[in-house]
Amino acid sequence: MGQFSATLQERGYRLTVQRTLILDIIESIAGHIGVDDVFGRIHATYPQVNVSTVYRTMELLEQEGLLTHTHFHDGAALWHRAEEGHHQHLVCERCGARLDLDLSVLEPLERELRDRYGFAPNLTHFAILGLCRECQRKAATEPIAG
């Protein structure tokens, strides 16, 4: 039994066959975890598992503090293990590269939003778009279209 299964069972949740299969797949994925990725891995072998069951299982894991999610610019949500710590994502609009950003970099912004606007932001659930170093370099050396 995997860590997620054991934790949910200890907390009184029922472990159906479908839920156990989903949890095993989630635990086998390193880094960011997408619903479609989990569903694709499970559906080929167990077509009776519905994508909504995968989604609800991931939401349950987040509710229980085992996963956290981020919304990316394309509207997709990706999860990662909570034990990996909170971090922000930098996404290159040109090549799609994703970089993790330590939330401590955003602390001055968080303080400014609190002080100036009395607003307590949650800076963990979105991605920051821009150009990565390599795409900036390429853009600087490309001829101007004209």
Describe the structure.
There is one protein chain. The N and C termini lie far apart (62 Å). A three-stranded antiparallel sheet has the order 1-3-2. Helix 2 (17-28) packs across helix 3 and helix 3 crosses helix 4 (51-63). Helices cover 42% and strands 18% of the residues. It is built from six helices and six strands, in the order H-H-E-H-H-E-E-E-E-H-E-H. The chain folds into two domains: 1-66, Arc Repressor Mutant, subunit A (Orthogonal Bundle); 86-146, Dna Ligase, domain 1 (2-Layer Sandwich). The protein has helices spanning 3-10, 17-28, 35-43, 51-63, 107-117, 133-141; strands at residues 33-34, 67-71, 77-81, 87-92, 98-102, 127-130. The radius of gyration is 19 Å and the shape is globular. By secondary structure, it is an alpha+beta fold.
In short:
The protein is an alpha+beta fold and 146 residues long. The protein contains six helices and six strands. The protein has two domains: 1-66, Arc Repressor Mutant, subunit A (Orthogonal Bundle), CATH 1.10.10; 86-146, Dna Ligase, domain 1 (2-Layer Sandwich), CATH 3.30.1490.
Measured as a percent range, the helix fraction is 40-55%
Shape: globular
Strand content: 15-25%
Overall residue-averaged pLDDT value: 84
CATH class of the largest domain: Mainly Alpha
Please identify which CATH superfamily of the largest domain we are dealing with.
Answer: Winged helix-like DNA-binding domain superfamily/Winged helix DNA-binding domain
Could you give the distance between the termini?
A: 62 Å
CATH architecture of the largest domain: Orthogonal Bundle
Structural class by SSE content: alpha+beta
Beta-strand segment tally? 6
Number of domains: 2
Poorly predicted tracts of residues: none
Q: Write the CATH fold name of the largest domain.
A: Arc Repressor Mutant, subunit A
Helix and strand run? HHEHHEEEEHEH
Strand order within the widest sheet? Answer: 1-3-2
Largest sheet: 3 strands, antiparallel
DSSP summary: helix tally: 6
Radius of gyration: 19 Å
